[in-house]
Design goal:
Length: 508
């Protein structure tokens, strides 16, 4: 017989854990935005204490017995939404509770040592110094999958599923293969074009002006600054939740549009968070599905919307006004091309949306081989460089520019990279559907009205919480499984007209 209080009690416990998580989020936001150098040690102690409290709350036996009793009813008396809450709470509980305390402590120690070793190795571009730590992280990743009942051969899938529920290497493989086949020749065609974007007339735009402009843009597309803010940090990110969303950006003199586009990207993440119902925070009804869907939201706003003509038709006059930029300094066509610059770069985070996906395909290939044992950690730099040449047509100058560029593996974050590329595919697929379901949308963009697309995303994606996993949600919204075809078509349609030289069409 169903006890009506059991579910209510579960939700109360989840809210409590969520409150604690939001405090941890706030403290680590502060660490990256405000913390005075000399206060780092005290902050580390505070973080350890918070992590302990969080671990205690989220592995509480009372929480487990609530889950047990709700599950023992077989879910017969639970509504669809209640089942979602129970399922996701169980998933979160198991992720933590199935790990022995000794493993958690060993992992935390390794994370901190490996991060430190990675920083030094990257500085000196000395892979050999870092390799032993990477080897240990891989062993621990296999060990962790084991505690969750996964055999060694399924360890990589376990980690992929952690970031994107329901996804696996076998599901990703054919998608990336098809994307790669279409993308490699497209990238060659664009980077070999005599037409080059030239953002140099924009170098030196005042930081104050950039701050004003990006605030106006992000507010206009729908970010609610009454329950969120944007600050500056070394690496842009978005944290917090629907009740209090914290974004950051950075100003880079040599890349004058970076602060703008990175802010719009983080706003896409922020809008997804702000779209979660506050009353359901901490439960499956008020939590994002996973990384790929999250990334689809940031990419859709950053790329499909903000790199498009209609967006610039509306914002260009204000952009010129703020910076006093006349058409003699940069024409409209040049400005638009600068916003859509494509150029090969060895570093993933410096790459544009066309070449970016090849960086991810490279990492996926190598992770897969590291996990299935066909690639030794000691051979990783050679494999990286060979694949970089094959995919991007470039060889990194050194390991700092190659295999050592990303922080992820040093923290044992395997299976995370594919989310970025899946997010790009999903963004293009959503864009396809949006254009069919909301005709004339781009005419509204030209008038600075982004409300209809935001309402659509709210209803179809944001408000769904974790009711559906990554693939199921995409299928529900677009009528199709995840496929690279819309992304390839979108990239061709946007970039080929810009970079295909026609007589008389060269930007001056
Ligand atoms: Zn992102």
């Amino acid at each position: 017989m169903k006890n009506p209080n059991t579910h209510t009690e579960l939700v109360a416990k989840l809210h409590r854990i969520n409150q604690l998580e939001s405090v941890i989020g706030l403290v680590s936001w502060d660490e990256q935005v405000n913390l005075p150098e000399g206060s780092a040690e005290r902050r580390a102690d505070q973080m350890v204490l918070l992590a302990e409290l969080h671990h205690r709350e989220s592995t509480d036996v009372a929480l487990e017995s609530l889950l047990d009793s709700l599950e023992s009813e077989g879910g017969a008396e639970l509504s669809f939404d209640e089942k979602v809450v129970v399922r996701e709470a169980r998933r979160d509980f198991d992720r933590v509770a199935k790990l022995p305390a000794e493993f958690v402590a060993r992992k935390a120690a390794l994370d901190s040592q490996a991060y430190h070793a990675w920083e030094i190795a990257r500085e000196k571009s000395d892979y050999a110094e870092y390799a032993p730590y990477l080897r240990r992280q891989l062993d621990m990743a296999r060990e962790e999958a084991g505690y969750h009942g996964h055999t060694e051969s399924a360890a990589y899938d376990f980690h992929i599923d952690t970031h994107d529920p329901g996804m696996s290497a076998a599901a990703i493989e054919p998608l990336f293969a098809e994307l790669r086949a279409g993308l490699v020749p497209l990238v060659r065609e664009i980077v070999n074009s005599p037409i080059k974007a030239d953002p140099s007339p924009l170098i030196g735009l005042s930081v104050e002006g950039q701050r004003t402009f990006l605030k106006e843009v992000t507010e206009r597309i729908g970010f609610d600054y009454s329950r969120g803010r944007i600050d500056v940090s070394a690496h842009p990110f978005c944290s917090g939740d629907a009740a209090d969303t914290r974004m950051t950006t950075r100003f880079v003199e040599s890349a004058p549009l970076e602060a703008l586009f990175s802010s719009i990207h983080e706003t896409g993440h922020g809008l997804y968070e702000q779209g979660q119902p506050v009353e359901h925070l901490g439960t499956g009804l008020g939590t994002a599905v996973g990384m790929a869907i999250h990334e689809s939201q940031s990419r859709l706003w950053e790329n499909q919307v903000a790199r498009g003509r209609p967006f610039w038709r509306f914002f260009e006059p204000r952009f010129r006004e703020i910076f006093g930029l006349g058409p003699d300094r940069i024409s409209s066509d040049q400005l638009f091309l600068a916003a859509n610059e494509v150029k090969l770069h060895p570093i993933r985070v410096e790459s544009d949306e066309v070449t970016y996906n090849l960086h991810i395909i490279l990492r996926f290939e190598l992770e897969k081989r590291l996990f299935d044992g066909t690639l030794e950690v000691s051979d990783l730099p050679d494999a990286w460089n060979a694949l970089s040449l094959e995919l991007l047509g470039l060889t990194p100058k050194n390991d700092a520019e190659g295999v050592l560029q990303d922080v992820h593996w040093s923290g044992g974050a395997f299976g995370y990279f594919p989310s970025y590329c899946l997010g790009n595919m999903i963004a293009a697929q959503l864009w396809n559907t949006i254009k069919v379901e909301l005709p004339d949308l781009e005419r509204e963009f030209e008038k600075g009205d982004f409300s209809r697309i935001l309402s659509w995303l709210r209803e179809k994606i944001h408000h769904q919480g974790q009711r559906y996993d990554t693939m199921a949600l995409v299928r529900r919204v677009t009528g199709d499984a995840i496929t690279p075809a819309p992304l390839l078509r979108y990239l061709r349609e946007r970039y080929l007209p810009l970079y295909q030289a026609r007589p008389g069409s060269m930007p001056k």
